[in-house]
Amino acid sequence: MYIVRQGVRKIYAKKFQLPHKKSAADIRTKKIDIQSNIGNIIIKMSQCIGASCIPVVSVGDKVRTGQLIADSDAFVCAPIYSSVTGTVVEEREILGINGNLDKALVIKPEQNQVMCESISPPKIETRADLIKAVRKSGLVGLGGAGFPTHVKLAYDTEKYNVDMLVINGAECEPYITTDYREFMECSADIIKGMKLIMKLCGIPRAVIGIEKNRPQAIKLMRGLLESEPNIKVKPVGTNFPQGAEKVLIYNTTRRIVREGELPMAAGCLILNVSSAAFIARYAETGIPLITRRITIDGNIVNKPANLLVPIGMTLGGLMKKADLRLAPDRIIFGGPMMGESVYEPDTPIVKTTGAVLFFKDLPVYKATSCIRCGKCLRACSLNLVPTEFEKAFEMRDLKRLKQLRVSMCMECGACSYICPAKRNLTERNKLAKELLKNKEKNA
Q1: 118 and 67 in contact (C-beta within 8 Å)?
Q2: pTM of the predicted model over 0.70
Q3: Are 172 and 238 in contact (CB under 8 A)?
Q4: Residues near 144 by beta carbon (within 8 Å), at least 6 away in sequence
Q5: pLDDT tens digits, residue range 259-295?
Q6: Can you tell me the distance from the alpha carbon of 22 to that of 41, in angstroms, rounded to the nearest whole number?
Q7: Domain 34-119+288-359, what fold?
């Protein structure tokens, strides 16, 4: 059973705080000019948790901005659209951040950018219309998990009594400020998206979770929602990982999502704030998910920024736009806690990329023996035992890993961060989950 004990949460909130480093928080989003030498666009065919898409265009084809270029018959999948007007010049495999080879389409942008003529606002009058439209939009969770949003909206109403929409605005990773900018720049879209979902899904109440260190966003949203008694703004703590799905649901509603259950079992539908705002914009324009707001920051960035970039823009193209004072020796897609290091210049921005961080001369730690201090246990918001995961993994003890509920680990990185022995516990947790998954798959 998944339990959040209040006493543990208090200890955790008091003793485990990350430096926020939100240098780009007050910087308005700037749109990248596609005509200003951004290089080729590389669009991966795997951009979500679920099936990969299959290209519906070929090398040599001309494509327009917003044109469908890949799709799948799988339900747990979202279609992919061209983020630029240009020519498909190559179909190839690229090395993904996870070490797997991913198929991708390479598009050479043209100077004259034209929106696809087939784009038009969808007709949304029922819940079925909403699910169909969100699927067609290509939306996946913009908080980073990448779960296709239409799958969430298509929950079984006979099985689940969902009475609460939870909007995740708790941007708890250091550096990242994209969701905060969504609040400050697109607040009306957020509310429109929420109301549309609530109306068509029959959800009577909603709550927006925003960290307490974002008073401007809290004040703005509360002011706009004064006449909406069914939508509340809930300030939550700044402890990490406040934005994790199960943690935020508990801290905004006091409801518990038990092991192996979905949030819907606790009566909650949870969406990232940027996802909710995108649904509103798509309903009005019909323009699919082809851009992504990302934060540019790090210890060698002269001017941190929030940029609206075309999906598929490469790391190499992005580095031309970043104001760096030194050549980086580490680049991270995402936040420093849950993001992943990138080295290939051709690595593209995908739907789930929330930040690109540039660093130089970060310390390299050498792991030493566990001193049994228990800090990793107190740091885990799910009350798991990372040191025992490590032991069971090294022994390849699958039965023990199951008993310890390793599958519940959300890989937030808190245990590795807090460990005074600098043991890479999160890495072991990931490997242990993969080991268990492969064993069950082949059983």
Answers
A1: yes
A2: yes
A3: yes
A4: 334, 338, 352, 354
A5: 888 999 999 999 999 999 999 999 999 999 999 999 9
A6: 29
A7: Ubiquitin-like (UB roll) (3.10.20)
